[in-house]
Write a structure and sequence with these properties.
heterodimer; A: mainly alpha; two-stranded antiparallel ribbon; two-stranded antiparallel sheet; 6 helices; about 60% helix; globular; B: mainly alpha; transmembrane (chain A); hydrogen ion transport (chain A); membrane (chain A); ion transport (chain A)
Chain lengths: ~250, ~220
């Protein structure tokens, strides 16, 4: 968001006194379609970070781990545990990459948006920030989760998967169908709202009192964005597990 | 005082109500009519307001804000939206899937392999440890058996030794007792003979003594 520096004698209109503009994008034109270039650029940085880490850490894998290998083993153990808790012991293995990528990409996106000094790079229009502050990213992830749990259910149970819509009682059929729309909606908006709102609050606080006051809010932002990554991954795993399990 | 710009010039329309004229010029005239009417009403309000200073300031502020609104609307449309869906969405989907493949091959698979191999090695070692304990038990039993045998042997030996020494001791004891008895008997015999001898000599001496005594006592 652009925050204008305003001198008091320059005020022409009241709306100039507090204006934080949201929704500014740096557009690139591909064919006759547009993209939000700031989202793509920051997502490329996130991908670069996420690929550099294991490449460096798996150079010399040993039976007794030290340092970086310890860390990446811990992360994998954490992701496996998360997936196993939601999906059960027998079927969690194939889904670890999906849930792991979901968790890691959201986590690194959010923390890179909060910690890296993006403002150093000036864009002609709009600015660089966390890629998850854009509705396209979060809806993309939510749609991927939707497709994943549909695929999981159909792959495991075939067309009897659609029996789950009338599962406890057929009266709940409309609610179950509605759930297929509200799940991705809530997933996307939860993440989008959290990240964008945090950026907005920090931007406003920094424009008012740049020194110490924004810091607790920034720390809270780090904490909540990490929690959001965990929640997104856990819910994705829960939906996939729920669609794979049999009748109760 | 702010004035709403009307299409018609203010001079002509402020002169009063213009009667409606039918035809092509209808719309234009109606605009002028409405515009003029509102302008007049506003001017009346303005007159009333300008007499009260605080109300005047408030009205000033309100009018300026009112002016600002069209400007804001234009800028919002120009600068972009929050809910702006475009090609970015499928590009992010593609990036996510490629990232998933990359992470799976670079991170999850190799690290999982190392972790699983380590678990397997630990399990093997644990199994090995359990086998060793059986062997140890067998060896312990063997050791105990050997010990028992050795103990039995030594006690047997000991008993035999004891019996032998006791026998030889007995024999020696018997022998020495016999010797002692023999010597004792000899010594006793000796003593007896000596006693006899002394008794006999004593007898003789006693006889002599008694003769002397008699001789001394009885004078001739």
């Amino acid at each position: 968001m652009q925050i204008e520096q305003l001198q008091i004698f320059e005020i022409d209109n009241p709306h100039q006194v507090s204006s934080v503009e949201v929704g500014q994008h740096f557009y690139w034109q591909i064919g006759n379609l547009q993209v939000h270039a700031q989202v793509l650029i920051t997502s490329w940085v996130v991908i670069a970070l996420l690929i550099a880490l294991p490449v460096v850490a798996t150079r010399n894998l040993q039976t007794i781990p030290t340092g970086l290998q310890n860390f990446i083993e811990y992360v994998l153990e954490f992701i496996r545990d998360l997936t196993r808790t939601q999906m059960g012991e027998e079927e969690y293995r194939p889904w670890v990459p999906f849930i792991g990528t979901m968790f890691l990409s959201i986590f690194v996106s959010n923390w890179s948006g909060a910690l890296l000094p993006w403002r150093v790079i000036q864009l002609p229009h709009g600015e660089l920030a966390a890629p998850t502050n854009d509705i396209n990213t979060t809806v993309a992830l939510a749609l991927l989760t939707s497709v994943a749990y549909f695929y999981a259910g159909l792959h495991k149970r075939g067309f009897s998967y659609f029996g789950k819509y009338i599962q406890p009682t057929p009266v709940l059929l409309p609610i179950n169908i509605l759930e297929d729309f509200t799940k991705p909606l809530s997933l996307s908006f939860r993440l989008f709202g959290n990240i964008l709102a945090d950026e907005l609050v920090v931007a406003v606080l920094v424009s008012l009192v740049p020194l110490i006051v924004p810091v607790p809010m920034m720390l809270l932002g780090l904490f909540t964005s990490a929690i959001q990554a965990l929640i997104s991954a856990t819910l994705a795993a829960a939906y996939i597990g729920e669609s794979m399990e049999g009748h109760h | 005082m702010a004035v709403i710009p009307c299409r018609a010039s203010s001079a002509r329309s402020s002169s009063g109500r213009v009667p409606a004229i039918r035809g092509a010029a209808d719309q234009k005239v109606r605009v002028r009519y409405n515009c003029a009417f509102f302008q007049e009403a506003l001017q009346n309000v303005a007159l009333k307001v300008s007499q009260n200073p605080t109300v005047r300031k408030a009205a000033f502020l309100a009018m300026n804000t009112l002016w600002a609104i069209p400007a804001i609307a234009e800028e919002a449309e120009e600068k972009g939206k929050i809910f702006d869906f475009n090609l970015t969405l499928p590009i992010i989907v593609a990036e996510f899937l490629l990232l998933m493949l990359a992470l799976d091959n670079l991170w999850f698979k190799p690290v999982a392999k190392v972790m699983d191999e380590r678990d397997e090695a630990i399990r093997q070692k644990l199994m090995g440890v359990r086998d060793n304990s059986d062997e140890i038990k067998k060896l312990q039993e063997q050791a105990e058996a050997i010990l028992k045998a050795a103990r039995a042997e030594t006690t047997a030996e000991l008993n035999k030794m004891r019996r032998e020494t006791a026998a030889s001791l007995d024999a020696k004891l018997q022998e020495s007792r016999q010797r002692v008895e023999k010597e004792l008997a000899e010594a006793l015999a000796n003593l007896e003979s000596q006693k006899e001898e002394t008794l006999r000599s004593l007898d003789k001496q006693v006889q002599e003594l008694s003769d002397q005594i008699v001789a001394k006592v009885i004078p001739f």
